[in-house]
Write a structure and sequence with these properties.
Number of strands: 15
Oligomer: single chain
Distance between the termini: 35 Å
Structural class: alpha/beta
Largest sheet: 8 strands, parallel
CATH architecture of the largest domain: Alpha-Beta Barrel
Strand order of the largest sheet: 4-5-6-7-8-9-10-11
CATH topology of the largest domain: TIM Barrel
CATH superfamily of the largest domain: Enolase-like C-terminal domain
Strand content: 15-25%
């Protein structure tokens, strides 16, 4: 008999985190606990407001919908597409954690993956004034890859932000406009930033415009990666020839199974793949990290942006993801040692 509980979780942040469409000082998610015969699986739903989801919608869904099966191995039934993405993600992670614990195997082993083949993660710096950005840069100097949020301000101001960072930082730089530009602005800014060695630009223009993405890609040297344009695997075919890569997030795909489908679809299309995250606890980020041997890039820094995470799982060796070797997701309660 499966029993499920949902608990809201608040995660105060180290710094206010600002992107084009929002700013937050506290991240909110929902912890899903799934019990069967004395074994507990734990998952996390980190709803994306951009897609009309919230912690409240996750709680309400499980309060009004019974699980489709009492057998945790009936994944097709339990994770049916009628479940909203965030709720399905939380349930999916809890099921994989539970199954791994029952079988005595970590998730990466269940998937046949090599835990030593994980990439290094980027560390994200949100939009801020120049002085605050420089203070954040001071704190982030130990990370070999930075992702810088852009999309607000004049083109010259955004170009100057990257120039000032590059002047003091020698590692890899990725940028993310979060739909904040139009085509011509993207071409202008990315053209000016090409000399600064930008690894790629994420979601330069609003989602739903593949022709616009193609127009940018054809005119700039910086590779183009999509996030908001690519929620699930079926979103990818219209992007063929328009972009260089996709950002896969468990919160968008509905969990591990949806992420695997999206990764394999992207590979079949010749696209590079990044694993991303929301600002979330170690539960969801650790789950994503188990998939990271399959991808080119990782942006799995959610727990690093929080002031206090009540869970511990994935760790970082100079940004390289180190997977826990314990069964299931390998997440435990209690702050990292």
């Amino acid at each position: 008999m499966l029993s499920l509980s949902v608990t809201p979780l608040e995660l105060p942040l180290r710094h206010p985190f600002k992107i084009v469409r929002s700013e937050e000082s506290v991240a909110r998610s929902a912890v899903i606990r799934l019990c069967s015969d004395g074994v507990e699986g734990i998952g996390e739903a980190a709803p994306v407001a951009r897609y009309g989801e919230s912690v409240e919608s996750v709680v309400d869904y499980f309060a009004s919908h019974a699980l489709a099966s009492d057998d945790p191995y009936r994944l097709e039934e339990l994770l049916h597409p009628g479940i909203p993405a965030a709720a399905r993600c939380g349930l999916d992670l809890a099921l994989h954690d539970l199954i791994g614990k029952e079988l005595g195997k970590p998730l990466y082993a269940l998937l046949g993956l090599d835990p030593s083949a994980t990439p290094a993660t980027s560390f994200t710096i949100g939009i801020a004034d120049p002085q605050t950005t420089q203070r954040k840069l001071d704190e982030a100097q130990r990370f070999p890859i930075l992702k810088i949020k852009l999309g607000i301000g004049t083109p010259s101001e955004q170009i100057e932000t990257i120039a000032a960072i590059r002047d003091r930082y020698g590692g890899a730089i990725r940028i993310d406009a979060n739909e904040g530009w139009d085509v011509e602005t993207a071409v202008e800014i990315l053209g000016a930033l090409a000399p600064y060695g930008i690894e790629f630009c994420e979601q330069p223009i609003p989602a739903g415009n593949p022709a616009g993405l193609r127009a940018i890609r054809d005119r700039v040297e910086v590779p183009i990666v999509v996030d908001e344009d690519a929620r699930v695997a079926s979103d990818l075919p219209p992007l063929l020839g328009c972009v260089d890569g996709v950002n896969v997030k468990l919160a968008k795909t509905g969990g591990i199974r949806g992420a695997l489908a999206m990764i394999h679809t992207a590979r079949a299309m010749g696209l590079k793949v990044m694993l991303g995250c929301m600002i979330e606890s170690a539960i969801a980020t650790t789950a994503a990290a188990h998939l990271s041997p399959l991808v080119d890039w990782a942006d799995l820094d959610g727990p690093l942006l929080t002031a206090h995470d009540p869970f511990a799982g994935v760790t970082y060796d100079r940004a390289k993801l180190i997977l826990p070797g314990t069964p299931g997701l390998g997440v435990r309660e209690g702050a990292p040692a």
